[in-house]
User: What shape does this take?
Amino acid sequence: MLEPWKVVESRITHEDRWLKLRSDRCVDREGRVIDPYHVLEFPGWINVVPLTPDGKIVLAREYRHGAAEILTGLPCGTMDPGESDPESAARRELAEETGYAGGTFHGLGSSFANPANQTNRAWSFLALGVSATGSRRLDPNEDIEVIVEDFVGFMAGFWRDGVAVQVSHAAALHQAALWLMKGSGPPETAALRRALRDEFNRVIGEG
Assistant: This one.
């Protein structure tokens, strides 16, 4: 039977405002010692698929230093210290990064960001009916271009060619489209649901 490792020693080997690194000395069920095993302790992440009443998706384009590329992705961020409600954090990040707010948020679930060596989960939301407020509150190191595109057209390109977004963004986009195509949305999303289904079937047919 599988068993969790036993942690016999644990220490914080690095900590600053961005990163907390924990180094554990572990023993598995066979008695083998794993030392050190490094674990990154991050806060929860949130991703938002924001749609306007007329079926547009609001995207964030910015430079990502880890990839050394300018990438287009979803409005996203981390939960602040003391924040316990992922939806509140998602609403805050959406407003801060894009200047869009309001709407109805639907949870798309959560998953571990990287369960091998990270402690946090990534929470995803579909936000229906968001609107521009014209007010953003970017962090000092953020430089974000807000892009608004037709959601059905964007998803067609995503399904057909893929886009350079991070894994959790790709999962959120798939979950949002599936949620809508299943008919989970309110009556006003019926036309969007039909258009998504038609485009999905077209892309699959081309493959």
